Every structure is written in structure tokens, then in C-alpha cells.
């Protein structure tokens, strides 16, 4: 049954979605880091029962490389993603201004090809349908930290189908997506040995491909304020494949129900997921298949006041797998929100915990160059205490200041290995795939964000984080920065010309390399590498030739810096891109 499901899923996803983006695709990929303060693309549709006009597709004027931050200051995510395209508020446009489709094409240096297509077709007042296709590839060469110039091509393609149907007082929603990422193991933290190709055990230059598909169908209540019951529940299926033979299949149920008892709201949030991952290295250091079940039940109650709300409950999580690993946890789940000055000041606080299921597919996409046989443990966020304040200083200026403290067990960090070889002597040989090590951590995170928006002519967003790690065993948090900073500004230069500038900074990091040659000469030793700060500046502009036709251009990494995402994996230098977008 699993094989049948997987075969049908792959066939439907590839034929339906991938055929629309087969433009100059290459079976390799690289990283290229840039800042995008906009959210990652996620198609959204108006509730089906409210559809009375066709949504318009808004051009963001961005070809947006991805630059991700997280509570642990994860290094920049690899590669580019296509820009965010979201339906605009139809109530702000007359019918003659609305469009249903959008096509954006571009090309740049390093033989870069980019294409994106978006279609949103509401068939009637009770149903909608959308399609999104995208592709990006580049045949780049990258200069590594010790001067080697290497080929680092990449390819990212994908697509999504999404829609909704009004069924009485409910909405049935469907999402189907497919993504394909390809890359090459081109990184190396030292001068690349001339004889490295003679080492059959080494993966230097190896080409990897990841394919990921997801299907979700959900039934949810409409947004009628008279509804006492608000719900969203459904099923989800997924698959993940790698060129090296690892496969992950998943299936699950989920649901969230919120019932208004007038005095309080009763809420229950639950999910069940089953995962099967094969050809990975198990705890016995032997390859095999891992089956895992994860159950999550989170009941809570919420009290609402005129200017405050308080929600309190518990989060029950249990996991079991066929390797004998079991865990059952009960966490607090509280959040509080108080608005002493409506629209000006909001105070918020939380006290929560969770057992994070570290899926094989999530780790592979977080770090493309992780060991393909990886089997990462769950991470236990024993508790997280957070608080802060947000609001507006004026009509144009908003702010959000926060602090978060987390106690974490089995937090994973990426490391590398090295060894001495008689074929390459005396230099050590570095494995340019990443292993993981674990440690318990106390993490303190201070965050700040300020934004200034003046109509449609000027917007400025500045945000930053400071992180402090206290670990039980490791001397430092490998590959983690103590701070990050991003700044973005968008401006209307003249009536038909808009421009943007964005800046991203990630502080200096340290990386750990463990040597595994106890009998070698010279004596083996572990190493610590410093990774210079990431500083990336991008500029771009869009010129409107007509209502439906626009030209765009951008310069990425204007300072032409060598920015390492992970140790030894540098990014592209300065890159130029231009193109055209058409809406219809």
C-alpha cells in the first residue's frame, strides 16, 4: 500500500507540477545568501464563501533570495527562493483592475535562469483554484576560503496546487506541492589536496538531489463571527527522496477545535503522525529503517477580557519508534496578552514546552550537506519563557521588543570530521559532509524589530537578535552566531519606478572539526575554525512599462564578499539579474 501511494503521489506531482518549470534545469545546486524580510511564499486563498471577485496578483518587485533566522541563530539557508506573491485585498480594487495570472522571467550572471508562474482562478462564488510554479538554477563558480575556485551549480524547482470549496458553513481546502532541490558537495575548509579525487571514501564533488511532496486536505469552519465552534482538521501525506537512496514517507491526522462556552473558550489541538525512513544509520551504527509515531494532544482554556486574554493548558507529547526509543512528556502551555493602551502598547508573555520531532527531511533541507545517512534525535524544549512589548510609536512607526529563555535537551549542532591519509600526507583530509553532536543548552534570546511605513511610497524594517548559549559539554555552540541583523527599505522613486535595498549581517561563528586518526602521524588533533561574519547588501528596482508589464533588475552581494553559510561552503560573489513580469 505504501509503495502504491508513493508511486501515485510522485507521478501526479511530477506530471502536473514539474512539467511547467522544466527550464534550463541542472542537477546541482549551491548556496547564495541574501536577506529577505518578506515571509516565504505560501499561497493563500480567500474563504470560499466570501469569493465574489477574482483576487489580484501583486508584484512584490522582489526576486528574493532566502536568509533565515531562528531562535538558535541557524546559519543562512542555502540557495534562492522565488519571490513572495500573494493575492491582494480584492475590496481595494475595482473589477477592471483585477488579474488572474502572473509570469515572471529573469536571467543573470553565472548562467542564472529564473521563472515563476502564478494562477488564481475562482470558478464561482463557492470555490477557488490556484497554481504556482517556480524554477531557479545557476552554473556558478565560487572562490573558497583558502583560494580554490570550484564549480558550485544548483537547481531549485517546484510547484503547488491549492483550492477551496464552500460546503455549507464549512470550507474544504486542498494543498498539493512538489519541490526538487539539487546541489553539489563543493565545500572544503582548507586548501583542497591535489590527490583528493583518489580517495574513494571521500564525497568531494558528489551530486545530491532532494525531492519532497506534500498533500493536505482540511475541513475548516468559515469566519462567521456567530460561530460558537471554530475548527480546522484534516489529513496530510508526504514523501521525501534523496539521490543517495534515503526515503521518508509520512501520514497523519490533525485537528484544532475552539468552542465558545461564553464564559471561557475550550480548545483542543491534536495530531498523530507516522514516519518511515529507510537507509539511515541507526543507533546501532548499522543502516536500516526507522518507523516513528508521534502523538500530540494540547487541551487548554482561554479567558477573554476587553483588553486582555489568558490561555492556559498542557501539551502532551509521546513518541515511539522501532529502535526502542520512547518518550512521553507533559509540558506547560500558557500565554498572556494585555493591551493597556489600545493600538499603542501590548504586553505579551508565554510559558511553554515541546518535544520537537527532528524529521529526516527537515534536517536535509536545513543543511543540504549533512551526512545523507543522518538519524537525528528529538530535541526536548523542556520549557521556554518569553515576554515582550509591541505596538506603535506613531501611525507610521511600529516596534516589537522581546526576550526568550529556553532550557533545551539534546540540541543538535553541525560538525565535521577529518583524518590523515597515507595518500595525502601530511595534510589532514576533511569530510565535507556534516555530522551532528548533541548537548544540553540554556539559550537566551533578545530580539527587536522596528518598522516605518509611509503609505505606498516608503517602508523601512530593521530587526535584530542577540543570542547567548550556555552548554553542558561543548565549549561553544558550533556554527551558531551570537547576533544577527537585517534591514530593508523599499521606496517609490518616481511614479512608475520603485527600488529596494536590503542588508543582512550574521556575526562571527566558530566551527568544530573532530579528527579520527588515533594511530596516524602526525598526532591527530581536533580543530576549531572561525567563520567570518556574513555581510550581504542587495539592491534592486522595478519599472512599470504598463499596468500589466514591468521590468526588474537587481544586484546581489554588492560588496562581493565571500560569505560562508557552513564551514567551507562559501557563497556566490556579486551577481546581476534582470527580467520582466507580466500579469493578466
Q: What's this model, at a glance?
A:
This protein is mainly β.
Verbal overview:
This protein is mostly beta strands. Helices cover 4% and strands 56% of the residues. It has helices at residues 2-17, 360-366, and strands at 101-108, 112-120, 127-138, 141-143, 149-151, 154-167, 170-184, 207-221, 229-242, 247-260, 265-281, 287-304, 308-321, 326-341, 345-356, 379-392, 397-420, 428-430, 435-454, 458-471, 483-494, 497-506, 509-515, 527-531, 534-544, 549-556, 564-566, 569-570, 575-583. The strands form three sheets. It has a 22-stranded antiparallel beta barrel. A two-stranded antiparallel ribbon has the order 4-5. Strands 27-28 form a two-stranded antiparallel sheet. A hairpin with a 5-residue loop joins strand 4 and strand 5. It is globular and about 75 Å long.
Amino acid at each position: 500500500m505504501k509503495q502504491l501511494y508513493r508511486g501515485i503521489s510522485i507521478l501526479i506531482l511530477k506530471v502536473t507540477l514539474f512539467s511547467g518549470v522544466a527550464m534550463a534545469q541542472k542537477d546541482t545546486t549551491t548556496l547564495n545568501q541574501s536577506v529577505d524580510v518578506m515571509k516565504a511564499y505560501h499561497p493563500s486563498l480567500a474563504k470560499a464563501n466570501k469569493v465574489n471577485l477574482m483576487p489580484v496578483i501583486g508584484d512584490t518587485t522582489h526576486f528574493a533570495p532566502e536568509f533565515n533566522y531562528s531562535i538558535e541563530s541557524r546559519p543562512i539557508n542555502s540557495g534562492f527562493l522565488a519571490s513572495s506573491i500573494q493575492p491582494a485585498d480584492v475590496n481595494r480594487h475595482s473589477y477592471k483592475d483585477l488579474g488572474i495570472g502572473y509570469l515572471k522571467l529573469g536571467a543573470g550572471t553565472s548562467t542564472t535562469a529564473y521563472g515563476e508562474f502564478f494562477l488564481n482562478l475562482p470558478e464561482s462564488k463557492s470555490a477557488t483554484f490556484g497554481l504556482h510554479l517556480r524554477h531557479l538554477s545557476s552554473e556558478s563558480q565560487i572562490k573558497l576560503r583558502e583560494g580554490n575556485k570550484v564549480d558550485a551549480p544548483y537547481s531549485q524547482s517546484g510547484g503547488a496546487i491549492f483550492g477551496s470549496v464552500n460546503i455549507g458553513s464549512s470550507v474544504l481546502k486542498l494543498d498539493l506541492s512538489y519541490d526538487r532541490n539539487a546541489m553539489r558537495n563543493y565545500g572544503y575548509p582548507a586548501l583542497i589536496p591535489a590527490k583528493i579525487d583518489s580517495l574513494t571514501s571521500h564525497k568531494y564533488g558528489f551530486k545530491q538531489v532532494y525531492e519532497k511532496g506534500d498533500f493536505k486536505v482540511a475541513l475548516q469552519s468559515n469566519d462567521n463571527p456567530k460561530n460558537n465552534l471554530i475548527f480546522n482538521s484534516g489529513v496530510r501525506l508526504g514523501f521525501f527522496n534523496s539521490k543517495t537512496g534515503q526515503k521518508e514517507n509520512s501520514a497523519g491526522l490533525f485537528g484544532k477545535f475552539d468552542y465558545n462556552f461564553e464564559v471561557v473558550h475550550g480548545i483542543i489541538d491534536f495530531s498523530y503522525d507516522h514516519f518511515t525512513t529507510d537507509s539511515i544509520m541507526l543507533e546501532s551504527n548499522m543502516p536500516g529503517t526507522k518507523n516513528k509515531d508521534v502523538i500530540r494532544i494540547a487541551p487548554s482554556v482561554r479567558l477573554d477580557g476587553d483588553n486582555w486574554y489568558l490561555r492556559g493548558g498542557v501539551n502532551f507529547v509521546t513518541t515511539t519508534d522501532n529502535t526502542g526509543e520512547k518518550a512521553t512528556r507533559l509540558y506547560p502551555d500558557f500565554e498572556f496578552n494585555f493591551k493597556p493602551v489600545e493600538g499603542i502598547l501590548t504586553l505579551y508573555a508565554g510559558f511553554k514546552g515541546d518535544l520537537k520531532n527532528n524529521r529526516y527531511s527537515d534536517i536535509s533541507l536545513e543543511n543540504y550537506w549533512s551526512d545523507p545517512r543522518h538519524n537525528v534525535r528529538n530535541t526536548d524544549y523542556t520549557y521556554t519563557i518569553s515576554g515582550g512589548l509591541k505596538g506603535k510609536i506613531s501611525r507610521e512607526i511600529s516596534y516589537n521588543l522581546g526576550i526568550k529563555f529556553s532550557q533545551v535537551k539534546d540540541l543538535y549542532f553541525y560538525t565535521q570530521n577529518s583524518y590523515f591519509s597515507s595518500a595525502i600526507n601530511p595534510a589532514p583530509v576533511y569530510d565535507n559532509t556534516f555530522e551532528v553532536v548533541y548537548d544540553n543548552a540554556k539559550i537566551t534570546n533578545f530580539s527587536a524589530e522596528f518598522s516605518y511605513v509611509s503609505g505606498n511610497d516608503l517602508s523601512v524594517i530593521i530587526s535584530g537578535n542577540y543570542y547567548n548559549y550556555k552548554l553542558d559539554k561543548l565549549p561553544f555552540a558550533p556554527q551558531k552566531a551570537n547576533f544577527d541583523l537585517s534591514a530593508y527599505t523599499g521606496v517609490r522613486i518616481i511614479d512608475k519606478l520603485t527600488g529596494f535595498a536590503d542588508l543582512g549581517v550574521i556575526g562571527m561563528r566558530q566551527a568544530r572539526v573532530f579528527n579520527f586518526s588515533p594511530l596516524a602521524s602526525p598526532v591527530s588533533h581536533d580543530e576549531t575554525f572561525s567563520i567570518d561574519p556574513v555581510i550581504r547588501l542587495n539592491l534592486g528596482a522595478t519599472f512599470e512599462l504598463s499596468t500589466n508589464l514591468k521590468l526588474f533588475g537587481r544586484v546581489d552581494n554588492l560588496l562581493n564578499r565571500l560569505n560562508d553559510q557552513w564551514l567551507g561552503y562559501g557563497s556566490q560573489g556579486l551577481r546581476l539579474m534582470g527580467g520582466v513580469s507580466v500579469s493578466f
